[in-house]
Amino acid sequence: MLHRLVRLALGLLLATALQASTVVAVSIEGVVHPITAEIIEHAILQAQQQQAELLLIRLNTPGGFLEATRRIVEKIVASPVPVVTYVTPSGGRAASAGFFILQAGDIAAMAPGTNTGAASPVLLGQEMDPVLRKKAESDAAAALRTLVQRRGRNSELAEKAVLEARSFTEQEALKNNLIELVASNERELFEKLRGREITRFDGTKVRLRLSMPVVSEYQKTIRERIISAIADPNIAFILLILGALGVYIEFSSPGLIVPGVAGGILILLGLSALSVLPINWIGVALLVLAIILFVLEAHLASHGILGIGGAIAMVLGALLLIQGPPDIRIHLSTALAVTLPFAGITIFLLALVLKARRAKVATGTAGMIGEVGTAYTDLNPEGKVFVHGEFWDAEATVPVKASTRVRVIGVDGLTLRVEPVSTGKGESNV
Predict the structure, then answer these.
(1) Domain edge (last residue) among 203, 222, 241
(2) pLDDT digits (tens, 9 = 90+) for 187-215
(3) For the segment 218-256, what is each residue's pLDDT rounded down to a tens digit?
(4) What's the predicted TM-score (pTM) here?
(5) Looking at residue 352, what is its pLDDT?
(6) Do 55 and 82 contact (CB within 8 A), yes or no?
(7) pLDDT confidence of residue 23
(8) Burial of 262 (0-12, 13-18, 19+ CB in 10 A)
(9) Burial of 331: CB neighbours in 10 Å, binned 0-12, 13-18, 19+
C-alpha cells in the first residue's frame, strides 16, 4: 500500500514538472550598447537550449546606439523562442532605442506608470543639417514601419515617435495599438498571456500554455558582467583617470609596484569599456593637452595659469570624449569631480619630484661639496681638517692656519680640496 502511494506521489510530481513552463528572463537597463546585443543573443540561445516557452525581455532604458539596437532587433525577430518585451518597473521607460526593441517583441507590454517613444535619431549627439536629419529619420522610420506592420500594430503612430519624437504612456500605447498588454507585474503578465495565440514574425502561429511558469534568469558571462558594470562612460572615465594617476605615481616613485600594477589594470578596464563606445578624437586630444599642461605647471612659474588651463581642457575633453546623445555622455559633475582632485594631486606630485631632483645631494662624497669644517693642522697646502664629524686629509688652495674655518670645494679620492671661508671683509675667518 505504501509503495503504491509513493509511486502515485512521484507520478503526480513528474506530471506537474512536465506541465510547468520555463520562461527565460533577461533585463536591458541603462544605455543600449554592443554588449547589450551580446547579452540578448546569449539569452535567446539559453532559452532555446532550455526549451523555454517564452523569452521575457525587461526594458528600462533611455536609449542607446543605433547599430547595437539594429542587431538586437534582428536577434529578436529571428528568435526560435517567442519573445515578450516588457517595460518595467513603474516609473521606467523604453525611450529611443528602447522603443525599437519594445516593438520587436512578439508581444509588447508595459507596466503602469511607464512610457515609451521619443525615437528620433541623433547623430553622435550633434546637430544635423536638414538633409542629413531627413535621411536618418527616413531610414529609421522605414525600419520601424516594417517591424510594426509585421507585428500588426499601429505603424502610422509608431512613425511619429521617430519623425516627431512623440512619447506615449502605457495607456496611450495600449489604446493606440502600439502594445498588446498592460500588466502590473510579471505574474499578471503571465496570466494574461496564458492560452494566448501569437503570430510570429514569419507568419507562424503559436499558442502559449504558460502553465505554472518558472522564471529562469539569464546568467551573464564573466566578460558580460565586467563590461556591463563599467560600460557607463562616467565609470570608464573615472577608471581611466585613476589608472593614469597610479601609473604616474609608479614612474615618479619607482619600486612601489602596487600603484603601477593597479593603474595598469584600471587603464585597461577603462579602455575596454570605452572601446564599445564611439570616441570623439577632439576629446582625446583635449585630455592629452590637459596632462601636458599639468606637467608644464610643475616646471614653469605660471602662477597657476597652466594648471587652470589643464583643468579646463580635461573637463572639456571629458564632456566631448563620447560621441552620443546626452544620456550616454560623461556628466559635467563627473568631469569636475575627477578633474579637480586629479589636477591637484598631479601638480603636487610633480612639484615634489622636481624639488627632490633639484635638491643638493646629501650622501656619498658628492654630499661633502660645500660642507664647512675646521683646519685641524696647518695646511701648507696639505694637512688635516675636521669636516662633518670626521677627520680628513685635505689640500688647500692657499696656505691655511690651524683652527681656520674651511669649505670643501672638491673631493679627490679620500682627500678633500678646501678653501678658507671668507668673512666678507676681504679676509679669511681665523
Answers:
(1) 222
(2) 999 999 999 999 898 889 999 988 888 99
(3) 988 888 887 777 777 788 888 888 887 787 777 766 677
(4) 0.67
(5) 66
(6) yes
(7) 93
(8) middle
(9) middle
CATH code of the domain covering residue 390: 2.40.50.140
Q: How distant is the alpha carbon of residue 347 from its chain centre?
A: 25
Q: Which residue has the cell 616646471?
A: 299
Shared-domain flag, residues 263 and 146: no
Cell numbers 572639456: residue: 316
The pLDDT of residue 260 is above 60: yes
Which ranges of 275-365 does DSSP label H, i.e. alpha helix? 281-299, 305-321, 332-358
**358, 382, 403: which is the final residue of a domain?**
358
What the block records as the C-alpha cell of 118 is 521619443
Q: What are the residues facing 58 on neighbouring strands? A: 27, 86
Same domain, 103 and 202: yes
Instruction: Classify 198 as helix, strand or coil.
Output: strand
pLDDT of 422 above 80: no
User: Same domain for 56 and 122?
Assistant: yes
Structural domain of 53:
21-222
CA separation for the pair 61, 295 (Å, rounded):
41
pLDDT bin (cut points 50, 70, 90) of residue 285 is confident
- Name 176's Cβ contacts closer than 8 Å, sequence gap at least 6: 154, 157, 168
Is the separation of the CB atoms in 394 and 406 below 8 Å? yes
Q: In this structure, are residues 342 and 314 in contact, taking their beta carbons and an 8 Å threshold? A: yes
CA–CA separation, 391 and 327 (whole Å):
74
